[in-house]
Amino acid sequence: MQPRLEIEFLRDEPSKIWITACNEDFAGKTEQYLNVQLLEEFANQLSVFPQSNSDEVIFKTGDADSSYGYCELKFHCFDSVGHTAVLVSVSNDNAYTAKFTVQFEALALDTFVSSIKFSLKSGSGVSELVGIKPYTQNV
Fold it and tell me: Whole-model pTM above 0.70?
């Protein structure tokens, strides 16, 4: 499985997103209603991420204890060199939960952010952050 994070957006009354993600070991998906400004703010924060190795961008929608599902995406640098990943935590209305990491490169993030901004302008769309296989460290 190619590691990835996908956000499908539909502007409607109310607006909705579908979040699907996987790495080589785990996968999860959820759908959430959201305020469009939340997604706009998320895209703007990601467009300047990372500014330092301690920088984080967190996107949350839904309530972790809700029977309707939940999503939290935590973008961060996981080492001192600035390698980046997103910690994906999702649950759905069937009480299935998944929590895992998807590593990615800077160009993939730029494409992802551009796609989110285009989806917001057009009212709908699918944005995909293509991940990479985890880095190994030679010690």
Answer: yes
CA angle 108, 109, 115 (to 5 degrees): 90
Measured between alpha carbons, how far apart are the two ends of the chain, in Å? 27
* Radius of gyration, alpha carbons of the chain: 15
| Kind plus residue range of the DSSP H or E element containing 107 | helix 106-122
CB under 8 Å to 45, separation ≥6 — which residues?
57
Structure confidence by residue, pLDDT tens digits, 89-125: 999 888 889 999 999 999 999 999 999 999 999 999 9
Count the helices and strands in the chain (H runs, E runs).
2, 8
Structure-token pair, residue 75: 């973008």
